[in-house]
Structure formats: structure tokens, C-alpha cells
UniProtKB/TrEMBL annotation:
Source organism per UniProt: Isoptericola jiangsuensis
Family: Belongs to the drug/metabolite transporter (DMT) superfamily. Small multidrug resistance (SMR) (TC 2.A.7.1) family.
A GO CC term attached to the entry: plasma membrane
Lineage: Bacteria, Bacillati, Actinomycetota, Actinomycetes, Micrococcales
Membrane topology recorded in Swiss-Prot or TrEMBL: Multi-pass membrane protein
Transmembrane segments: 33-51, 58-78, 84-103
Keyword list, A-Z: Cell membrane, Membrane, Transmembrane, Transmembrane helix, Transport
GO molecular function: transmembrane transporter activity
PANTHER family: GUANIDINIUM EXPORTER, SMR FAMILY PROTON-DEPENDENT DRUG EFFLUX TRANSPORTER SUGE
Protein name in the entry: Quaternary ammonium compound-resistance protein SugE
Length: 104
């Protein structure tokens, strides 16, 4: 159960990061509210997962999921341009997160 909560929390990290960007400095109300809700839910889920998982592993997995999805969202929306190096580094990041989970 802790892993499921951690994964959902990692996804919510990407949601709040994208919403933060879309809020344009907290000037747009809807993305600002989405940012705040996703941030609180993401942190609460991370905190709960850390009661059952090692702190370092939980945090690394949470950050890895959030960072990977945020970069992929940037590719999809055209805010970032994919290239071979970025894609290979994302694959390495995902592999590292999977590896951390495998050895935990």
C-alpha cells in the first residue's frame, strides 16, 4: 500500500509542478488552486509512505517520478524539446527509480 501511495504522490508532484508553471506567478486562480491541492496531497502521501518505507528510497522514488513526468509533460506540451541525450537520461532516471524499488 505504501508503494501505491508513493507512486500517486509522485504523479501529484508532476501535477503541482505543471500547475505552478501554468499559474503564471499565482496570477491565474484555477492553476493556483490545483497547485495548492496537489502540493498538499503529494506531500501528505509522501509523508505517509515514509512511515513504512526508508526515507531515502521513498524520497528518491517520489522525486524521480515527479521529475520524469514533468519533463515528459514538457515534451508533450512543447515547452521542452526532446533530444537523444534527454531521452536517454530519462530512461536512466526511470531505471534508477525501478532499481531502488527492486532493492528495497
Amino acid at each position: 500500500m505504501a508503494w501505491t501511495v508513493l507512486i500517486v504522490s509522485g504523479v501529484l508532484e508532476a501535477v503541482w509542478a505543471a500547475a505552478l508553471s501554468a499559474s503564471e506567478g499565482f496570477r491565474k486562480p484555477r492553476p493556483t488552486v490545483l497547485f495548492a491541492v496537489a502540493l498538499v496531497a503529494s506531500m501528505a502521501g509522501l509523508a505517509w509512505a515514509m512511515t513504512d518505507l526508508p526515507t531515502g528510497t521513498a524520497y528518491a522514488v517520489w522525486v524521480g517520478i515527479g521529475a520524469t513526468l514533468t519533463v515528459v509533460w514538457g515534451f508533450v506540451t512543447g515547452q521542452d524539446r526532446p533530444n537523444v541525450a534527454r531521452v536517454l537520461l530519462l530512461v536512466l532516471l526511470v531505471g534508477s527509480v525501478v532499481g531502488l524499488k527492486a532493492v528495497s
